[in-house]
Each structure stands twice: as C-alpha cells, then as structure tokens.
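Researcher: Quick one. two chains, 996 residues in total.
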Amino acid sequence: MKFKIKDMDIATGGTLIVLINKSDAAKYDLHAMDRVKLTKGRYSETALIDIGESEKAVPPGIIGLFEEVMHSLKAKSKETVHMRLARKPLSVQFIKKKLDGKTLNKNEIDQIVWDIVHNKLNDVELTYFVSACYTNVVTLKETVLLTKAMAECGDMLKINDYPVMDKHCIGGVAGNRTTMILVPIIAAAGLKIPKTSSRSITSPAGTADTMEVLTNVSIPIKKMKSLIEEINGCMVWGGALNLAPSDDKIIKVERPLAIDAESQLLASIMAKKHSVSSTHILIDIPIGKGAKIESREEALNLKERFEQIGQALKKHIKVIITDGSQPIGNGIGPALEARDVLWILKGDQNQPQDLKQKSVLMAGYMLELAGKSKPGFGYKSALGILESGAAYKKMKEIIKKQGGKNNIKPEDIKLGRYTYKHKASKAGRVAQIDNRIISRIARVAGAPKDKEAGIYLFKHKKHKVKKGEILFTLYAESKEKLRNAIAGLKTQDPYIIK
Amino acid sequence: MKFKIKDMDIATGGTLIVLINKSDAAKYDLHAMDRVKLTKGRYSETALIDIGESEKAVPPGIIGLFEEVMHSLKAKSKETVHMRLARKPLSVQFIKKKLDGKTLNKNEIDQIVWDIVHNKLNDVELTYFVSACYTNVVTLKETVLLTKAMAECGDMLKINDYPVMDKHCIGGVAGNRTTMILVPIIAAAGLKIPKTSSRSITSPAGTADTMEVLTNVSIPIKKMKSLIEEINGCMVWGGALNLAPSDDKIIKVERPLAIDAESQLLASIMAKKHSVSSTHILIDIPIGKGAKIESREEALNLKERFEQIGQALKKHIKVIITDGSQPIGNGIGPALEARDVLWILKGDQNQPQDLKQKSVLMAGYMLELAGKSKPGFGYKSALGILESGAAYKKMKEIIKKQGGKNNIKPEDIKLGRYTYKHKASKAGRVAQIDNRIISRIARVAGAPKDKEAGIYLFKHKKHKVKKGEILFTLYAESKEKLRNAIAGLKTQDPYIIK
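Model:
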C-alpha cells in the first residue's frame, strides 16, 4: 500500500497515529486501532490507524501523519510512504491471558510494562490490562514482578548506604502534612531519606505543592543524589523525575471510571520506593469517614498486602493504621499547610498539636525501624530532635539546597487576600468534620493551583463551640472563587455540631 | 474558561473531540478524556478533551475543534467559545457497577446502550463495559435486557405476520453458504424470512459478500419490508441497515484483543433477529478443528444459553450442532460459493452434495419449527421444494427484486484469471482439511475483497487421493496475490493425507 503524506500539524504527545480515509480503510480491510508499519526510505515506524470519515481530513490515497510520526520518518508533505499491516505488540496476548484469569510470569509482565512505557499499547489495550488486574486475582508474586518491572523501566536512584528510609501515606485526610516534619527529623538523625512526593490529584494540596511554597521541588535525579549524600534528605516532586513512568499512563485510563485496582496501587507505590533504593518504609493508612480507606477491615487487609509485598521485595515495612476521621493540622491548602509545618519545626505557640504528635510518632517508628532507637524509645528520640531545633535547622538546609530562600518566616507566607469566616450555627460539641467536604471547599476556593487559597480550622472534633463562634476561615485569591466556595458551604456543611 | 476557536479540519466520524494545549490543561486541571460542555451563543455541545503537547497544534488560549464539534456549534475559526467541565454520562457509574461484579437492571442497561449508540462514551469507558461483561457473570436476565436495548436503540422492521423465520450460524467453516439455499426454500414454502447477513470479518466470504455476486444487497429497510410482503424472503447486508447499531461500536473495542464476550455475542445475535421481528430461529453451531467452536462441550453450553435466551425473549429457537471439521461445499470465496449455490438450486450435476444435504436438513428443521411440516417430515418437504425447482424460481425472484440480473447462469460467474492447481504430495486418504488455513489462503488470494478470488476444492475428508492428484485450485485476480497465496501454502498445508 502506497500513500502520499499529509502533515496533520498535530502532536498527540504519546501514541503514534496516522489517519487514512474510510474508503482506503475499506479497500485494504483496515480498522481503527490496527497497527501499521510505515516505511519511507531508510526510516520506518509503527503507528495506529485512525479513520477519517470525510474527505476533508484526508482524501483517498492520502495518509495524514501526526507530528510524532512526521518526525520519526523525517517526512515532508507530499512524499510517498509505504504501509503494511504490522504485528500487535507481544504484550497484547499476555493482557488477554490475564483477562482470562490466568497468572502471568516475569517475561510477560516485563513485556507489558515495557510496552506501556514505550507507548506501544493503545488506550483500549491498556484499559483491558487495568480491567483484568481489577476484576481478577493478582497474586503476590505477580504484584512483586509488576513492582520491579515498573521501577526498572524508568530511572533508578542508586544510594550506596543502608538503611534508606521512606514513608508513604494512603491519603484522603486534609492537612495531613507529616512528611515535611518527619523528613527533617529523620535526616537530622543521620539517616538517608530520598523523599519523592506527588502533587495533589483530588485533594487541596500534595506534599509537592506544599513544599513548593518554600522551595523548588523540580529537582533532577543527579541533584537528588548529591543532596542525599550531602544533607541526608530532600523533598522533591516525583512527577519531575522519570521514576516508574508507566504509572501516569495507567492512571490516564483509570481516571474515566475512577478505578483503583489494589494490585496496581500497591505495585505503583512500591515501585516508586524501589526506584529510589528505599529499604525501610513506613506506611500510614488513615481510616475514617471521608478518608480514602473508611473501614478498619479494609485497612487491615491493605496492611497485610503491604507487609507481604514488602517481605517479598526484601524491604522492611511497618504499616500503621491511624485516625483519619477529621483533618489533621489547622491549615488546608499549600500555603496554610506550609505555615503549620514551619510553626511545628520552630516550636511556635501556633503549632497544631495533632499534626505535631502524629509526625513525631511516625518519625519515632521510623527511627525504631532503622534500629536508631530501641523499640519503645523512638517517639522520645524523635521529639528530642524536633524540640532541640535540629529538625528545623535541617529543614532550612533542605529548603536552601533545593533552591529556596534563607530563613523563611511562617508569618511571612502569603495567604489569599479574600477571606470569609465560617461560624457555628448553634452551640454544642463538634461531632464530625468531613474530610471530603473540607477538601472540596478548599479546592473550590482555588487550592492547590492557587497556593494561597485554602481553609484554616479553629475547631477540631470534640471541641465545644458557642453559637456564632468561628469554625474556620476560608482564603481565596479571587472574589469569585471565594463566592463559589461560600456557595458550596451552603449546600453541605463539613461540620456537624451536636 | 474562554477559548478562541481553531478549525482542526479533521472529522473523527464518531466521538466529539476538542484539543487544548497542555499548559491550559495544567492551568484548569483538565485531563485527557475529561468531558467539557462548550457554549457558543445559543449552541452548546459536550466533547472530550484531548491534550496537545506542542504549540504547533494549538497554542495556549486556543481550542482546536474537530469537524463534528465545529458543525454542532456552528463555529468559525477565531470565534470565542466558553468551556466548563461537564458531568460524565450516567452510564459510567453503571459500567463501574458491572465491573465490580454486580447485576444491572433495565434502566442501567438501557442507559449504557443508549450512551454507546449516541457516542457518549469514550473508548476507555466502552472497553471497561466489554471487559466487565467478559470477566464477570452476566445473568440471563441481563442478557435479555441487553438484547432488547440493543434492538430498540436502532431501526426495527415490523412484520405483521406469524411465524417470521430466521437462521444464524456461529461460523468459522469455509464455504458453508447454507443461507442462500434455505432462504429460497423457506420463502417458496410460503413463510416470511427477512434475512440479514454480515460481510466477512475474518473469513473469505460472508453471505452478504456472496449474495452480492448475484445482486444488490444494500437495501433500505422500507424496501426490505415490501420484499417480505411481496415475495416472502430477501437476503440483504445488515451493515447497510441501522439494526442494533451499538454492535459495530462494541466490536471496535473488542478487535484489539480479539475478545468475544459470550453474553455480548448472544445479545448481539438475538438483537439483530429481534429487530427484524423474527419469531422462529434456527441456530447452527458447527464444531470441529479450525471452526469457531472446537469442542462439543462448548457447543452444548452455547446451545443451552441460546435456548434460555430464546425462551426469555418468547422466541421459538432450535439449535443444531453440526460437523464443522472441514469446509462445506467446494467453492470458497464469493464467486465460487455463489456458483455452488446456483448449481444446487438448479440441481446441476456439479452441485456439492454436502452443502446441499446440510441446507435441506436445516430448511427441514425450519419447516418443522414453523409447523409447516410434521416432526420428522421437514427434510422431505424441503427436498421436494428444492427438487421441484420452486426454490430456484424463488431465488431468481429475490435476485431480480433486489436489483440483480435476470437468469444468471452459474457458468457465467467470473472467476479469478490467475490460477494454481495444488496437488497431493503423496497418495493416501484425506485425514483433515483445516478451515483456518483454507480461509487464510483464500484471503491472501484476495477474497472477499476480490470477489473472483478463492479456492475450489476437489477433495473432501475421507476421499482417496493419488500422488499428484489435484486437491484444489486457487483463483486470484492478480499475479502477486496468487504468488502470495502459493507462498502461504508452502508454510502450512491445509490438507493432511494419511
């Protein structure tokens, strides 16, 4: 089959696509998503067929090449290209095998992950893979193989030290910014902790968003390595690194149905840890209404799976189940959370005690896990490091080395100029603060895109309130967003007072 | 969000798509496949987001509209359009429900099918639905609801008569063109049979391809109705009609993994029957090596499912399991099969006895099913109608009324001018003829696109052959295709002689 090239002048940013007219599709018995091998002189490329209905896009005899394909073939408009049907990538049959409920071996899993990372699969094929892992049993061995394949398909940060510390939180609890307190404590204790974090997906702030209020978080992997060697710790945005890169592609097809395949979730978390050489990992599973995990049973099940996969990967894992029934800390949104963090590190009177306690507890468990503290003495050691000012000093060092300013004062952090004070409609005791509603309101107010937007809580669960007392303040960068957030409060109040 | 329109000058032929720059996507927190509502003056439309990586396709602030969206919004380049995030179609949550292994009710299934037919779902969402039906249990009730929803979402051919006959073959057997013999027999017996057929997907000929050698098969539904009223029968291409139109969209996402979800298959077959008002249906399940169904157990299971769904739909169904272990008839490929059919209808000495026997047997079962013949006497009646010439007369009537020529002679049917005689490499008895290999060779020779291409068999199973005796002749319309088919024979011989 010979075609004349038309430059479509569109980049897809991923999948390689060519467009042919529907009459050519019928003539050559080609279907949408069929793979074809294109050859022009000594260049060749495999791409997916898309079919144009009208002659406007491409008339018969013409093939429309999207930018990636133009580039790969060094093609120019009106040149001739030869096309033939190409084989499907090997992994397609392995995906079918998993969909049929069978167990995959190492070669099969490696091939699937390689094909995902190298854009060899189309969205439909990738969806079948996600779906197969969601509806069928994925064995522990498969999850381990998936984890390793995902890590090894991207960059790896090699750290020649032992132990290498890490932590992960399952999430869903507003304000829960423990990472930014425990990383300085652990690093100040002399342990390596190459912490990567994500930006928020559905919450008002991710650790990367919050850290970015204080310093640069887009750090190349080489620089990350030197930071770990020099100052033991860092807090960087994982998205700027090429660690376990299959994840983003998988998430893309999970989004439309809000699928969360447990095996994929485990593999994706552990792959990120594996790719930065972590050996000792603390996992926090908060439970409670509005958190990601709502029941204790679900949390215990997930804990067991983490412990199993940790053991299989020869990593030391400690899983803790914590109270996630209300926001932790007072600030919600990047700037407000960064301010809480600095207050805690400085020992300021404004520090939220709940976030401090939880962070010190977690840091303590990590010291024990690493053998730095004897069992039962971790909390005390961690508290000592925090209260001595060593953790604060370490934080300033991390901020500066990552490219931030010297000595940022919590009071200097800019907050949204439009504010609204939400007051109690009756007297009583706070019975509930719904994480999901709090997060949504903070997002409507602009967080995390508007770093200065968010919520500052004055009352937590079990606090007594008088009628008309301020429960929280809303911050926004624009009047309109503030108005939208206030309107949101009218429909659903995050506080229940009894 | 406001954007300036750019006309992308591309029609997708289905899904409504708009393209924005990746920096706008980040700014507004939009992701690929998110749905947005676009408004321009009094026109509005919902479309899916696609994200362009480079500024070449669309720079920030510009939205690229594909032709369907341009048209729907009556848009011109450089006009301004307002965009906001739209809700997902209702069916997305029902698809998730099915993926979680739950049972769907009528409203949920109707909504899914409606959204499929109206292009409201993207390929990923549709794939999750197919995958959910493939990996999870689909109850009989769900299959019935799916069948009705699929039929009712398209055109329906109402026939005010009883019974209305139909047949379906599961396929996979080369040359098995029974429809073109039994439809004239049934119609000549005075029964209505509004037969729709498909074109070949993976075989060397579908009934629609073969019938098209003799007459026009793209018949509008109104004309089909008048043919049934006037002459009782017709044989038309289902693809030209809007019957159960969700099917093609489902097949599109099944192709990449060659998925065949049984419940979908059943629903899709029965929906096509339901949409033409069929009340009495004969289902043929051929079994044997290389056929679609290879084991008796599988066939019996499928038979039971057909009987159950038939009963639930209040249709009279008879399922027969037949020998599909070798090609049936001598001709394989549209022209060669059409010639066999005419020879049988005329009672010519060249008629293939196996195809004649099977067709008469099936017609006989249908006469019994309709109550036209007493049990046990159908075969004799059908044979009588065939041998009296009444079926041939009916066939000529159907051919003419559908727009074909008068009195086509089987000898006048044009065959491929390039031929090759494949000879036995040793003496013995034919132990096996592989349907899959025969079909593939015929396709490589050009069938079904080249109507004159194909294979004509001289030997069937159990036939004695001498060394050097001709087993079959290959026909092709071009030297190159003939050469390719001959090359194919070198790798795999369809005949095993013992």
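Chain B has four domains: 2-85, 91-137, 165-401, 415-497.
Researcher: Thanks, that's what I needed.
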